[in-house]
Amino acid sequence: MKYNHKDIDAKWQKRWMSEGVFTMDDASEKEKFYCLVEFPYPSGAGLHMGHPRSYTALDVLSRKRRMEGYNVLYPIGWDAFGLPTENYAIKTGRKPQEVTTENINTFRRQLQSLGISFDWSREVNTTDPAYYKWTQWMFLEFFKAGMAYKKAMAINWCVRCKIGLANEEVVNGVCERCGGEVEKRDKEQWMIAITRYADRLIDDLKTVDYLPKIAKQQEDWIGRSEGAEVTFALEGDVSEYNFLGLHAFCDDSTSAFWPWLQKELSTRGGTLTVLDLPNSSEPTIAKQVQYIRENYTFNEKTIILTHSLGGVAAMKLLPELDQSIKKLILIAPPTNPSRFMDKKPRPALDACCDWSFDYQAIKDKAGSIIVIADEQDHIVPLSQPKQLADQLHAEFFIFKSNTPHFNAVEEPVVLRSILPHVTVFTTRPDTLFGATYVVLAPEHPLIAELANRIQNKKDVEAYQQVTKEKTEIERGDATKEKTGVMLKGVQVIHPVTGEVLPVWVADYVLMSYGTGAIMAVPAHDVRDYQFAKTYGLPIHQVIEAPIVSVPSGIVHQTAGQLTEPIVVDVACYTGEGVCVNSDFLNGLEIEAAKAKMIEWLEKEGKGVRKINYRLRDWVFSRQRYWGEPIPLVHCDTCSPETDGWVAVPIEQLPVTLPDVEKYEPTDSGESPLATITDWVNTTCPECGGPATRETDTMPNWAGSSWYFLRYVDAHNPDAFADPQKLKRWMPVDWYNGGMEHTTLHLLYSRFWNKFLFDRGHVPTSEPYAKRTSHGLILAEDGTKMSKSKGNVVNPDELVEQFGADALRLLELFIGPFAEPAPYSHAGMVGTRRFLEKVMDLPGKVVETESEEVTRALHQLIQKVGEDIETQGYNTAVSALMIFVNAVGDGGGLTRQTLQAFACVLSPFAPHIAEEVWSQVGDGLAMQQPWPAFDAELAKDVVVTLGVQVNGKVRGQVTLAVDATEAQARAAAEADEHVQTYLQGKTVKKFVYVPGRIVSFVVV
Question: Could you tell me which residues are beta bridge partners of residue 154?
Fold first, then answer.
């Protein structure tokens, strides 16, 4: 029968659409199955060959699940905000809205031409105001929870795109999207505090079914490392500072740690004044503030240190001062006495003030702010100082006090926070005795703070300028020579030995990791060693390796046996071993030494156990037009606790983009929206006064971080989705996407869902129960397809020439699904020929078929069913081809066998499967139950085995699967090829393992 693919494809696509066979039934009581693919960015180029690979694979799964009786949700939509469309629109003088609509129409037509069983009734578009209304609402949830904040920072700036980039969007030092130069610029950016979820994002990977390489990429990107923060005090006294202490509720200047702290500072040349605040047990904060102002003179060298309620007095005091101070240190500060952990009523505290604070004024008056919490506090919950630190953009530390709430007479961590110091993060506290110098990142704020001490300030500034021109990738390149500048006049004191160590600035230390400072242990860190060798710095060995010395170097020894020799530099050993030259650590192995050193540091108040992360908070601002407007306005009168930023109420959402003719990015770094004054100038929703809109837009990752939730209830005007529908459908059962998205979209969307879960808006913490990935489709020569190389294969042309089913089969047959695979035109011809054979099958129907064909059918059903579940699509298609060949060899097939074959074929090549089914069955093939196989009938009755003679295959025999040893030997000896190697030999041994081995040992 002639295979006219154009007529067949059009015929069945029309019927599927008219009957709505892919539309999920919300009322169905069948078990649900939510199948998801990453929705595409609708570029002007249309579908590329990679899109159908993922969509077809999950289409096979979705179709099989429907046949197995599940209520399947397999939706599609468009991730349509973003730079490519905006840049194309600017280039062609069009509006991005028009370009986006045009591109979506092209993508929709292409996907429908492939017969993908998407539920088109749930189509979403991230640029639709009805959609991004809820993206904006979710941003406001982050904002209200203190998770979204604005921060001045050095950002990655793409010179070509004229946009700020998240760290994740800079690949090998260039912009991920355009490949353009990336430089550092200082700018205020909206940030979302994804780092607060770092541990859960790693730990919860144990609760889901992800490919191991996907989970590993997530873990590596978050980059959790455990170690210690260690304090290296700066050499010199503290006489230049004036310290003011403000005590706690019901305390005075003789309470808690104050007398001890005064003595400690006095020995270092400092003076601490602790005022006895009036009415300590029945305080009125306003009167205490007045008392402080009358009894203390402030200047730019003042450091205010507070304990508990004293912090409230300080925060009320600072906005009233005419003078800025050096630093504010808040120890265990409360912000809401009604929420204390012991739940004791404290009416005096409730009434002492209004418990509201002008955070912006506090920040303006304090040069720097540190907030310290006690991990064993029994009064103030950790959440209060943490939220306060967020509001003040302060450094935040959690320490373990000697007595809960820092009430001991000696609290070393308090002293540590006061003294000028360098804090380093290290994963190797066991090597602390080997630290011979300290290195700061060139951007470290301490360099500016110590400017008056630095004797070679011009050299340092010149080095800082050179560093600004380098990317973090370049700075971290292990192959490049290490450079740096000593901070002459600045030294630190080793926290254990008391030795005075030099301080250097070097670009191999990054401000974005740890504290931006390291202790250098050149004997046991390669980068430190290279730097020390370059500048002639000391190298102290503190780890002794289990080694055997040989003339050519060092050979590692394990369990008394030499492994393959590894030649290393004796002066820098980074492997396992025991501590030497390390006082109380001597003789300990590394892990035990780490634990003991951290214990000592915490006891002495010179360090704390610390977990660090490579992950940084999410840069959420973009200075472009084509993105979701950030739904905030700035009012000079309202919301001092959020620096004047006020949320747009839900009744006024969505905040839509203005319809303008010009929207080109600016060289200044400001969003083009900033120039549209009619849109920018608005009224404050709180006070009704004048206000200005935020002009940055959201990153394109925003809309794609929650689209899987909207599919569940795609057209709900009153909520992003009905809670009952979310409970019914979440989590996604199977999600497939590209490996290139496992450290960006996948991480962001998991985080976004966890946050919504914590806010009570979604029913599951993890959005995806299972995640798999597919390999790229490459050009025929194995290189990446690109327009510049002229090797792009257009799916439209293949569908036109060969048909949708042929392309679907090629995408699945081309190689292992998870691996990259080159396009094959010969493969395209091959899948077409296979389909032509399928069209001939109705003409081969017989009354009775051979046992071989029956067996082949049951083997097919078993094989294909198993392969779909393991994404072995290539071997499943191969099995379909083998079956068709078996029918040809076996003399035909029965009507019932052809019906079963059409059902098995249906998920893979649905158009031709329906055409075949229509000749032998009623209804639609896709709506039939998935065929069952008989395990007995699926068993092979014969097996072909290689015959070995002295370990080498010399022939083969075909045996019944239940052949006896005698039968196997007789068959093997009868093979003419085997006879050649047995002739004139004596058989010493014959081995037969049914179904596996036939072997002779001869002499």
Answer: 186
- 């600016």: which residue's tokens? 666
Nearest alpha-carbon partner for 54 in 39, 42, 41: 39
Alpha helix positions (H), 469-525 = 472-475
Give Cα 604 distance to the centre of its chain.
37
> Which range of residues forms the domain containing residue 930?
795-938
Looking at 883, 913, 938, which one is the last position of a domain?
938
CATH number for 812: 1.10.730.10
Residue 186 to residues 304, 388, 978, Cα–Cα distance (Å): 29, 25, 79
Judge whether 305 lies within some domain: yes
| Alpha-carbon distances of 320 from 357, 798, 918, rounded to whole Å | 12, 74, 85
949-997 pLDDT per residue, tens: 999 999 999 888 888 999 999 999 999 999 999 999 999 999 999 989 9
Q: Which residues contact 937 (CB under 8 A, 6 or more apart)?
A: 854, 855, 858
Tell me whether residue 111 is in a domain. Answer: no
Other Cβ atoms within 10 Å of 928 Cβ, number:
18
Decide if 516 is inside a domain: yes
Distance of CA 806 to CAs 371, 545, 816, 826, Å?
64, 61, 18, 12
Mean pLDDT, residues 119-125 taken together: 98
74 vs 547, residue with greater confidence: 74
8-state DSSP, 682: E
The last residue of one of the domains, among 938, 961, 988, is: 938
Does 257 lie in the same domain as 324?
yes
**Same-domain status, 464 and 606:** yes
Residue 14 structure tokens: 């029309």
The whole-model pTM stands at 0.80
CA 24, CA 66: separation in Å to the nearest integer? 10
- Indicate whether 745 belongs to any domain: no
* pLDDT of 551 above 70: no
The radius of gyration of the chain's CA atoms, rounded to the nearest angstrom, is 35
Q: Residue 113, Cα to own-chain centre: how many angstroms?
A: 34
Residues 439 and 475 in one domain: yes
- Angle (CA) 92-93-97 rounded to 5° is 95
In the sheet that 987-993 helps form, which strands lie side by side, from edge to edge?
952-960, 942-949, 997-1002, 987-993
Element (H, E) at 896: helix 895-905
Q: 787 a known binding residue?
A: yes
**718 burial type by CB count under 10 A (0-12 exposed, 13-18 middle, 19+ buried):** exposed
Instruction: Quote the CA–CA distance of 64 and 865 in Å, as a whole number.
Output: 8
pLDDT bucket at 499, cuts 50 / 70 / 90: very high
Give, for 372, the enclosing helix (H) or strand (E): strand 366-374
Q: How far is CA 337 from the centre of its chain?
A: 37
Domain count, the chain: 6
Q: Does residue 913 sit in the same domain as residue 971? A: no
pLDDT at 650 over 70: yes
Helices 5-19, 804-813: crossing angle, 10 deg rounding: 90
CATH of residue 287's domain is 3.40.50.1820
Kindly state whether residues 919 and 952 are assigned to the same domain: no
Q: How far apart are CA 73 and CA 25, in angstroms?
A: 9
Kindly state whether residues 443 and 299 are assigned to the same domain: no
Residues 359, 457, single domain; the answer is: no
Angle between helices 795-802 and 96-113 (to 10 degrees): 30
Contact 83, 700 (CB under 8 A): yes
Helices (H), 116-184: 129-144
Quick one: 264 and 354 in the same domain?
A: yes
In sequence order, the 6+-apart residues with CB closer than 8 A to the CB of 173 are 182, 471, 472, 473, 474
Give per-residue pLDDT as tens, 930-942.
999 999 888 888 8
3-state class (DSSP) for residue 717: coil
Contacts of residue 837, Cβ cutoff 8 Å, sequence gap at least 6: 884, 888
Q: 3-class DSSP state for residue 581?
A: coil
Number of other residues whose CB lies within 10 A of the CB of residue 367: 15
